[in-house]
Amino acid sequence: MAKMTLEQLRKLREEKKRDIERRETEGKEIRIIVGMGTCGIAAGARVAFDAILAAVERHGIGASVVLAQTGCMGLCHVEPTVEVLVPGMPDTIYGKVDAATATKIVDRHVVARALVNEHIYDRPAADIIRN
Amino acid sequence: MAYRQYMLVCGGTGCESGKSDEIYKRLIAEADAQGVKDAVQIVKTGCFGFCEKGPIVKVLPEESFYVEVKPDDAKEIIAEQAVKGREVKRLLYDKSTRKSNNKIDDIEFYQKQFRIVLRNCGVINPENIEEYIARDGYAALEKALFQMKGEDVIAELKTAGLRGRGGAGFPTWLKWDLTRKAPGDVKYIICNADEGDPGAYMDRSTIEGDPHSVLEAMALAGYAIGSNKGYVYIRAEYPLAIDRLKIAIAQAKEYGLLGDDILGSGFSFDVEIRLGAGAFVCGEETALMRSLEGNRGMPVPKPPFPAISGLWKKPTVINNVETLANIPVIITKGGAWFAKIGTEKSTGTKVFALTGKVNNSGLVEVPMGTTLREIIFDIGGGIRGGKKFKGVQTGGPSGGIIVEKDLDAPISYESLAALGSMMGSGGMIVMDEDDCVVDVSKFYMEFCVDESCGKCAPCRIGTNQMHDILDRITKGKGEEADLARLERIGKAMTKASLCMLGGSAANPTLSTIRHFREEYLAHIRDKKCLTGKCKDLVTYSIDPSKCIGCTLCAKKCPVPCIAGERKQAHVIDASRCVKCGECYAVCKFGAVVKN
Questions:
Q1: Which residue in the set B48, B134, B365 is minimally distant from A122, CB to CB?
Q2: Does the pLDDT value for residue B107 go beyond 50?
Q3: pTM for this model (two decimals)
Q4: Nearest Cβ partner of A1 from B119, B134, B254?
Q5: Exposed end of chain B (fewer CB within 10 Å): N or C?
């Protein structure tokens, strides 16, 4: 991308915001986001990431799933954390996700559409940008 | 077939003790009995961080938040919400009962946390500038460049009342204003990312999770004071943060949000990274600037302040990561919005790295005015293993210990200082009854001895002297006059040191002597350490009348120095014992005695 002008920046911001809304309303896309700060990685986030990737491939759902990384969401006592956004289901944050749990999240939550017991945590605060 | 409703039952320690497991089972049984088990999924979750009002049940997608739920409520919750789709009003969390010292009332939230600095952490991909832009990123810079003058930006910060989050709490607007008015063509912006307190990691996490918020704020600072060049001084032992910052700078330049003629406004601003070697003293602003210039990192006397003569003797604004991360939000949402959060003199939020003996350690961001009790017992979920709370160390090696009776003080710069501690960068280490305050003070003093740069005598000699005295107390060789000696040296260091490293190094010791004089005296007079942390002062033995000969302690002993036949009383060979305390911890019959 070349340097932007003011108009281009505004346009890009609107576009990206619309992307997010569309994702929420049309609901075609499944997003799995792994917390990859130093703390997450130290607790095994890379292992969880790889396990999710393997499970997604095994189910052949790679085309509809976006696997992404993010920073620390603050739940250090339950790292590694993984957020799962599946259209039609509540946005869910899973903690203490080892390889087995990561696989279970794909099998149960993403494919069978049911939450995985014992690993759900709450987002720590309301989002000031969206509210 | 997907479920249409989800009931989340909190399975945190606090809620478990309030029978949340029984609630969970009753909900499942009721869902089955009332024929909705295929429509509603009932799951057990981790702590919701609202333990005071537990047990908690949350119903999605309605977002119904039920508090103080009892097992007998299960039937009604299923009958009303799962079958008829109506909320059970009497169990809903009533915001009006929220006890809080805060002025925010127009924001709907049940959580204790409120995230401004960490707004994007754990939300966006930090390596993708477009995700930051989508969440109003660079909107503040855009607003400033095209709708505000430099002084307007500063005025907005003044309205907001933002104060430095590095610890001292100096008003940010004033720092900027002084630098703006200082004579000179060349001025600099520095981001202080030399986070060094043991147990503090909020700045690292902010840069790792949201590097652009810091860059945007630095550009705003440049625009406000008339500077075109910024440096991020970050310690080399934060490799992931450095990588992400590099990516962020490259992307911002590519998109024209840093560099020459930003967005065609005519304003140019460039940011470079400088790596520090991880010296604690380089978090002190004058030492940091010396290090950044390529000299040895040692502080110099103030005044002149950096606003007049800073980096390469040019007027310089130096702010820490957390302070900066607040600024784009203040410009976008307005200073008045920000000033509504927190207390009168300490506005906004503070990020704390909550660690130590709490159940839910983590990075928490709370409005100023929240109490330490709320942070430790609600968000932190209380003390691990149900042990007794002893104290909380805020401000790391520069702060002091805060004890039970002061836990209800609302957090602000002033209140923590009044309690003999300080805000510091925001490390918060919780201690329980098993922690020895003399041992902890010695730990912090050892840290200060290592990190003292050696330039001024009060710090170089004082920290060593205090450490030696603390060390001999922990070895049972202390005398009563040592307490007065510690206080005298501590006071001299506080007054005479060149910078705050020495000026605050005595704080942990002085505050623990103030609150736990008896514990110091027990070490000195009775040669006893009640927690067993000071290994020279403790012996372990086995009470033969209580020992049933289960052999567990002998199996756990690492030496091993515990002998005894199965079903016979065991004996510890004190001459070989390394005093690890394993036997004491594992004995289920209270037979191992600690003296």
A1: B48
A2: no
A3: 0.88
A4: B254
A5: N
